[in-house]
Specification:
CATH topology of the largest domain: paralog of FGE (formylglycine-generating enzyme)
CATH superfamily of the largest domain: paralog of FGE (formylglycine-generating enzyme)
Number of domains: 2
Number of helices: 7
CATH architecture of the largest domain: Alpha-Beta Complex
Structural class: alpha+beta
Order of helices and strands: HEEEEEHHEEEEEHHHEHEEEEEE
Distance between the termini: 38 Å
CATH class of the largest domain: Alpha Beta
Helix content: 10-25%
Shape: globular
């Protein structure tokens, strides 16, 4: 979103837009604070521009006093040279930018990031993740991260905002196998079959069945897509590993144990602990990546190792990268591996 990268409207149309929206943006759509120059930056911190809000749009229509969670919401920015940009999707902007844009209607980070959340019958928060495409893997990483390839996910899904906690696991399963005890700590020392059984039992709860919610482990593609949250950066939040401590409990700051979920900063889609704390089980068997674009991939049909993602409290920064792939024998239980759930509708 740097100034050279943002598309411009034609000069004629720019003039029309500026004249037509001057009254609206100064008196209706834009608050007093937004009439001043602010810094717009993307979640991956690769692009930024300083300018003024012209107006907000969603699905081709003007949006008066948006709250920040409208589907397809975008902002048109007035550049320093007076020309408007093309609509910039709100979802690609950094949390800091979102707070600046919507601080008059939503006063805290948690309020902004809690928009579009569903809370299920055991208190688990779920975030709607939109369908979309992204580049999975990395040409600069380990061999099992190559080749980088385009993945398209055709259906939206809901993903746990946090890793499954010990309190949630105990409520559903009647036991808590974790080494590092604490109700809001992530459950660990679970193997892949335990996680699958948790999903089955949670789906069978009367309240969940009534709501039409079905739970399972995320595919590896769903997991990386949600981790990246529209970013192509090395670590999701950016490329500088020195910032990792703001987002993750890992080897340098964990004290060699887990921590309560949600204490670090979330990613751009409001998901916490996607890197660090515990590595997270995925549904897929571990295997080589395809050499071409794929749609809704589910991984190999068989194998001996299940994929883990996100890395855990004992791992170094290099294993907290967006593309890093871990794995564990399906029957193994360790105190650095847990999981989060995907929720889909049981309806048509």
């Amino acid at each position: 979103m740097e100034q050279s990268g943002l598309p411009r409207l034609g000069s004629f149309y720019a003039s029309i837009f500026l004249i037509y929206f001057w009254f609206l943006t100064s008196s209706v759509l834009v608050s007093t604070s937004l009439s001043q120059d602010i810094k717009f930056e993307t979640a991956d911190k690769k692009f930024s521009i300083t300018g003024k809000v012209a107006y907000f749009v969603a699905k081709g229509k003007l949006v008066d006093s948006p709250s920040g969670d409208e589907e397809g919401l975008a902002v048109v920015i007035i550049r320093p040279d007076g020309e408007p940009t093309a609509p910039v999707p709100i979802e690609i902007l950094s949390t800091r930018t979102k707070l600046m844009l919507f601080k008059d209607t939503l006063s805290t980070r948690k309020e902004i990031l809690s928009k579009s959340l569903v809370r299920n019958s055991i208190g688990m928060q779920l975030k709607r993740i939109p369908a979309g495409s992204f580049t999975m893997g990395s040409e600069n990483g380990a061999n099992n991260e190559k080749p980088a390839h385009k993945v398209t996910l055709t259906k939206p899904f809901m993903l746990g905002v946090h890793e499954v906690t010990q309190e949630q696991y105990q409520r559903v399963m009647g036991s808590n196998p974790s080494k590092f005890k604490g109700s809001q700590y992530p459950v660990e020392q679970v193997y892949w079959g335990d996680a699958i059984e948790f999903c089955r039992k949670l789906s069978a709860l009367p309240a969940e069945r009534s709501a039409g919610r079905v739970y399972r482990l995320p595919t590896e593609a769903q997991w990386e897509y949600a981790f990246r949250a529209g970013s192509t950066a090395e670590y999701g939040f950016g490329d500088d590993a020195s910032d990792l401590g703001q987002y993750a409990w890992f080897r340098d700051n964990s004290g060699q144990h887990t921590h309560p979920v949600g204490q670090k900063q979330p990613n751009a889609w409001g998901l916490y602990d996607m890197q660090g704390n515990v590595s997270e089980l995925c549904n897929d068997w571990s295997g080589s990546y395809p050499s071409s674009s794929v749609t809704d991939p589910k991984g190999p049909g068989s194998g001996s190792v299940r994929v883990t993602r996100g890395s855990g409290w004992g791992n170094d920064a290099s294993r907290c990268r967006s593309a890093f792939r871990g794995g564990i024998k399906q029957s193994y239980r360790v105190n650095s591996v847990g999981f989060r759930v995907v929720c889909v509708s049981s309806g048509p």
